[in-house]
Amino acid sequence: MDLFLEADDDPKTIAFVAERNEHSDRRFRTPEFEKDRDALKAMIEREDRLIVPTRRGRWLFDFHRSKNNPLGIWRRLPADREPRPDAPWETVFDVDAFCRQEGKRWIYSGAITSPYEPTRVLLILSDGGSDQLRLLEFDTEAKAIVDGGFDTPPARAHAAWLGPDEIAYFGSVDEFSATRSGWPRVGRRLRRGVDPKDAPILYEAGKDDVTGMGGIIDPLYWGGAPKERPIEIFTAVHDIGKASYEVRDADGNLRRLDLPTESDIDYNHNHVLWRAKTDERYPSGSLILQDFAPFASEPLGKARVLFAPKEGQSVSQFALLKTWAVFVVRDRMVPKLFLLDLTKPEAEPQELPLPAGLQTVGFRLLDADLTLGEEILTVIGQGFLLPSSAYRLDLTDRSRKPELVPAGSSPAYFDAEGMRSELLEATSEDGTKVPYHIVFPKTWTKGELPVLMYGYGGFAVPLSPVYSGAYGLWLGQGGAFVQAYIRGGGELGPDWHKTAKGKGRHKAFEDFVAVARDLVKRGYTKPSRIACNGGSNGGLLTSVMLTRYPEDFGAVWTSVPVIDMSRFHLFPSGKAWMDEYGNPEVADELDYMLSYSPLHQVKPASEITYPAVYVESSTNDDRVHPSHARRFAKRLLDEGHEPFFREYGSGGHGGAGDTTEMAERQAMGYSFLRQTIMKD
Fold first, then answer.
1. C-alpha–C-alpha distance, residues 141 and 345, integer Å
2. Letter string b/e over residues 137-150, b meaning 16 or more CB atoms within 10 A of that residue's CB
3. Which residues are CB-neighbours of 562 under 8 A, at least 6 positions away?
4. For the chain: N or C, fewer Cβ within 10 A?
5. Residue 226 binned pLDDT confidence (cut-offs 50, 70, 90)
6. What 8-state DSSP symbol labels residue 490?
7. Backbone phi and psi for residue 436, each to the nearest 5 degrees, phi listed first
8. How high is the pLDDT of residue 399?
9. CB 359 within 8 A of CB 382
10. pLDDT tens digits, 524-549
11. Is the pLDDT of residue 614 over 80?
12. Which among 402, 355, 400 has a CA at the least distance from the CA of 381?
């Protein structure tokens, strides 16, 4: 089926993409599109946004995009100053200037901080928004690239500092160093000036694993003696969501920790905190704390359950600090925050009261690395109609009762007066109750409400309510927004995901269409007024809505989608998805996947009328190859349908770019919706 579209440099591919891009641009680049693009761009570039800084040494750091720096600047402020937008921020690294100097597009993707010298970092630079990452050593005190410092070739990579002058570098720099999925397999002890291929091997995951990773906890972390040995921990990710953990013992040998492969873990120098994803040892979804003595004959000791979920509950985030455990629980989609004092062996988790009205709560460290930092968290809360607020949670001083201290709020990006948000439930085909949020505009007509539905439903990825200026723009134009928490995601715990894995994938589809039908049943809207949107696995979900449930939707906007379930595994990244979807080389698994594979389910226009469809992708998407989107559009065209297709030249899987590029992608989608479900 049009396999030439898998070759990016085939003249026929280039011609197809150019023709379809021009067709979509001609239709959707309207004056309204330009107005939306400019509004979205202005939101991204706002100077008065909420700043949630990271502390390194005596500085607070913030990444900021602006009109003059659309790719962004990394900036700093003395740590004793309040991180306000009007504070005297000082530019440390100008991404736009760096790209001009290099003659190449790099996207800032974070920094790996040295625990020995917190102002020394490895900048993570993505090649055009792709998964190819360059690690570049940078001195934030001197505000300069380190002469002769680490500078790794673009590759799928991650790293951790092993000492002041060496890192554990995991990079897919050659076939030997990569897993079959293309992610890094081999960790190397890399020093400055050494080619990664020549550095001594520190750790190897299996060729059939998804990736390997590792790092150390230095004695500085726990105030140990200079001669104490660091704790080395390595991870082999066998499948997405399945991993083994190994620690180097007193004899220098790697020992596998006795933990289920289906568990999520965090660790510090004397504890391991893990969430069970099966009933193998504890009820699925339970959070377990164990003593950790890496150099003892038995590294894992006494265990106790900190949290066992009841129906409708799940742990959405957890972490170990030096002397505290912190976790967030969703209780029927309402967040709750818990703290546990690890210095008191028999202490029980204590719930910390949250401000009223928050629909989502998360936390992050103030310090980039706890080795030289303090146990201070920034807690961030928000809702669909509630701008983000930051709170400082200082756990360093035990003489004071922990409390959330307000540390700033986001400005309102839209006028929410008269809008409302509700949590509802739909009933899926097998009787399962599926929660979803609906956010209403100020005014709407019963039975005619234009609805944009969003979903994902895969790989245990949980969706949460977020405050978004982009959604606010849609609401301000009279549309409603719906977020569906369907099976396959992680919103209601591990079992919510597992039910829709493999040959249960249809349950995610049934859940999503059940939400669409529930909106009609409740009298809010009608099918011709409902559009769905999703990306990646959510692109698969929404494409299935097109081919399986065309009568339930008026428009489908599918982004960077997985489309061909018979060939996804032939691209390196796709090999990592077989545990989730199935193996196309196994006949009965392929038969099941073909029963919903969007590419294979397209019927001719003489037999069926599909809702309007807009397929969006990126030329340099190296996670879901753009041929999925191209071939889907081509198949629809060949069968007599009229899809819209837009492939952007950069941005990678996440649509990264400068402020104009990011705004344009969203505005194109809104232009499509305005001409479909909002059209009279």
1. 41
2. bbbbeeeeebeebb
3. 536, 537, 539, 540, 568, 577, 624, 628
4. C
5. confident
6. S
7. -155, 150
8. 87
9. yes
10. 999 999 999 999 999 999 999 999 99
11. yes
12. 355
Is 478 exposed, middle or buried (CB count within 10 Å of its CB: 0-12, 13-18, 19+)?
A: middle
pLDDT in tens, 89-98: 999 999 999 9
Hey, what's the torsion of the CAs at 25, 27, 28, 34, to 10 degrees?
80
Report whether 516 contacts 536 (CB < 8 A). no
Any idea which residue has 């998407």 for tokens? 621
| CB-CB neighbours of 678 under 10 Å | 17
CA distance 160 to 169: 7
pLDDT of residue 335: 98
- Coil/strand/helix, residue 509: helix
What residues contact 115, with CB distance under 8 A and at least 6 apart? 161, 218, 220, 221, 369, 371, 372
pLDDT tens digits for 322-342? 999 999 999 999 999 999 999
Query: Which segments of 353-487 are extended strands (E)?
Result: 360-365, 376-383, 386-394, 405-409, 420-427, 433-440, 451-454, 480-484
Residue 498's SS3 state is helix
Nearest one of 418, 430, 438, 443 to 519, comparing CA atoms: 438
Q: Write out pLDDT tens, residues 642-676.
A: 999 999 999 999 999 999 999 999 999 999 999 99
Burial class of residue 19 in the structure, from the number of CB atoms within 10 Å of its CB (0-12 exposed, 13-18 middle, 19+ buried)? exposed
Tokens of 596: 């919903």
Nearest of 230, 39, 48, 10 to residue 667 by alpha carbon: 39
Pairing of strands 530-535, 451-454: parallel
Residue 581's Cβ-count burial label (10 Å; 0-12, 13-18, 19+) is buried
Task: Tell me the per-residue pLDDT of 169-205, one tens digit each, with 9 for 90 and over.
Answer: 999 999 999 999 999 999 999 999 999 999 999 999 9
Under a CB-based contact definition with an 8 Å cutoff, are residues 523 and 517 in contact?
Answer: no
Q: How confident is the model at residue 73 (pLDDT cuts 50, 70, 90)?
A: very high
Residue 64 sits at φ, ψ, to 5 deg, of: -140, 130
β-pairing, 555-559 vs 612-618, is: parallel
Written in H, E and C, the secondary structure of 168-223 is: EEEECCCCCCECCCCCECEEEEEECCCCHHHCCEEEECCCCCCEEEEEEECHHHHC
CA–CA dist 10, 160 (Å, integer): 39
Report the chain's mean pLDDT, rounded to a whole number.
Answer: 97
pLDDT confidence bin for 223, thresholds 50/70/90: very high
Distance between CA atoms of 363 and 274, rounded to whole angstroms? 18
Angle separating helix axes 537-548 and 505-521, nearest 10 degrees = 60
Which amino acid, one-letter code, is at 608? I
> What would the 3-class secondary structure string for 622-656 be?
CCCCCHHHHHHHHHHHHCCCCCEEEEECCCCCCCC
Q: Is the pLDDT of residue 620 over 90?
A: yes
First to last CA, the chain: 37
CB atoms within 10 A of CB 195: 11
The DSSP call for residue 603 is -
